[in-house]
TrEMBL record:
One of its GO terms (molecular function) is NAD binding. Its EC number is 1.2.1.11. Residues 4-119 form the Semialdehyde dehydrogenase NAD-binding domain. This is Aspartate-semialdehyde dehydrogenase.
Length: 344
């Protein structure tokens, strides 16, 4: 028995990836509907070997739809997710619109699957920020083993986190540098080609950016409210794959070898950690892969019970589309939803 699934924002980077992953993982669908704004109506997108014509969100009736996976931005989600939820369709939202709402579960299935039962209050489930998702996948098993006190993280985030415009800007700027054309910055605040920008999202009153604040708030909500976290989020000239240099202080002693063994057994994690040239993961190897990769695990000689590590993942997949589909799978596996329409 299959579920009717709508992908909203189907023409964007993440929306297309959601369609790919639904098909790749064999999610039990009776029908998939591609939805976007009115200006994209009639555009064609792929779902496996099928071609779907995009329908307009405005006026679409979700009353016979089981799951809506939303990747259309915060403002659209704020307006539409509650309306869709009221029609009895469960919304899995990839924006930040509902992540901090106490009545909306924020879920990474490897980290806090039991929290999903709270979705019935609003029929909305939030997908975390891409940089937080990979961080908590790697840290949850270590927190269970030795209790995390404090995290210091510096991110190296790819331009695809800023959407297609971000990827286009890196490409056009790089080409402009090579042919000695003027380099224009439109999407980013400074040139991104052959540069790094320590600024993602808007600035807050305390000098941190919204992206840094998101990592703090989401880690506390999903992992443990007692954890202290400080982040510096940086955009780098990489197309796909976010990387993080992470320092973690624990309450209990834990060695690098123990951490390596724990992470090797942990769901969603893949340890690639040889102390030799190339014995670690970089973003280019993570692109198109589902795992959260952990490398460079070592003890911090300046602090008791502390480790350093390097965490890399495809931000379009685990950071967004894959996690959303895994949430849908969790709803089905736990019997939390049933198809409204029996497949013919």
């Amino acid at each position: 028995m299959g579920f009717k699934v709508a992908v909203i924002g189907a023409t964007g980077n993440v929306g297309r990836e959601m369609l790919n992953i639904l098909e790749e993982r064999g999610f039990p669908v009776s029908e998939v509907v591609a939805i976007a704004s009115r200006r994209s109506q009639g555009t064609e997108v792929s779902f496996g070997d099928k071609t779907l014509k995009v329908k307009a969100l405005e006026g679409y009736d979700f009353s016979d739809t089981d799951i809506a996976i939303m990747s259309a931005g915060g403002n659209i989600s704020k307006e539409w997710s509650p309306k869709i939820g009221k029609q009895g369709c469960v919304v899995i939202d990839n924006s930040s619109a509902f992540r901090y709402d106490p009545e909306v579960p924020l879920i990474v299935p490897e980290v806090n699957p039991d929290a999903i039962s709270g979705f019935t209050r609003k029929n909305i489930i939030a997908n975390p920020n891409c940089s937080t998702a990979q961080l908590v996948v790697a840290l949850k098993p270590l927190h269970d083993a030795a209790t995390i006190k404090r995290i210091v993280v510096a991110t190296y985030q790819s331009v695809s986190g800023a959407g297609k415009e971000g990827m286009d800007e890196l490409f056009t700027q790089t080409r402009a540098v090579f042919v000695a054309d003027p380099v224009e910055a439109k999407k980013f605040t400074k040139r991104i080609a052959f540069n790094v920008i320590p600024h993602i999202d808007v600035f807050m009153e305390d000098g941190s950016t919204k992206e840094e604040w998101k990592m703090v708030a989401e880690t506390k909500k999903m992992l443990d409210p007692k954890i202290k976290l400080t982040a510096t989020c940086v955009r780098v000239p990489v197309f796909i794959g976010h990387s993080e240099a992470v320092n973690v202080e624990f309450e209990k002693p834990i060695t690098a070898d123990e951490a390596r063994d724990i992470l090797r057994e942990a769901p969603g994690c893949l340890v690639i950690d040889k102390r030799e040239d190339g014995g670690y993961i970089t973003p280019i190897e993570s692109a198109g892969e589902d795992a959260t990769y952990i490398s460079r695990i070592r003890e911090d000689s300046t602090l008791d019970n502390a480790l350093n590590m390097w965490i890399v993942s495809d931000n379009l997949r685990k950071g967004a589309a894959l996690n959303a589909v895994q949430i849908a799978e969790l709803l089905v596996e736990r019997g939390l939803i049933q198809p409204k329409k029996k497949a013919a």
